[in-house]
Amino acid sequence: MTNREAIIQNYIDGYNQFNIDQMVKDFDINVVFENVQNGETNLVLNGLSEFRQQAETAKAYFSERTQTITAITHLEHTTEVDIQYVATLGMDFPNGLQKGQILQLSGKSIFEFQGNTITRLTDIS
């Protein structure tokens, strides 16, 4: 399970540093990404190229961002990670959020593995 933890930490380090190559290093080419907010799925990406494209776009959303792992639970094919998230907005948003505002959230990321490869990532907040 420590291998999974190293893979997940690599992903989070890449995320925090806006380093997409590092983020996707252990992703399967057919990775599925799902974002769930308030119980509703608001984004589904199929495949590495869709994920990369969204990750590039999202870089402009924040001037800084930090995910910190607060707990890890290993199951047979998945690892659930509780996350504390702090980000400074890098632009104004249509919903009224303003550039420079700080977001603080807690959530969960569920990483699904096949061997040492991430095949699915679900972010829940």
Structure description:
The two termini are 24 Å apart. 24% of the residues lie in helices and 51% in strands. Strand 1 (27-37) and strand 2 form a beta hairpin. With 125 residues, it is α+β, with helices and mostly antiparallel strands. It contains three helices and six strands; from the N terminus they run ααββαββββ. The chain is globular, with a radius of gyration of 14 Å. Strands 2-1-6-5-4-3 form a six-stranded mixed β-sheet, with helices on one face. The model has no long low-confidence stretch (mean pLDDT 95).
Task: Offer a quick outline of the entry.
The protein has 125 residues and is α+β, with helices and mostly antiparallel strands. The protein contains 3 helices and 6 strands; from the N terminus they run H-H-E-E-H-E-E-E-E. The chain starts with a helix and ends with a strand.
Rg for CA atoms:
14 Å
**Based on CA inertia axes, which overall geometry fits?**
globular
Query: How many helix segments?
Result: 3
Strand order, main sheet: write it out.
2-1-6-5-4-3
Strand content: over 45%
Cα end-to-end separation: 24 Å
Overall mean pLDDT stands at: 95
The largest pleated sheet is described as: 6 strands, mixed
Count the beta strands.
Answer: 6
Return the structural class. alpha+beta
Name the poorly predicted regions: none
Assembly classification: single chain
Write the H/E string, N to C: HHEEHEEEE
Overall helicity: 10-25%
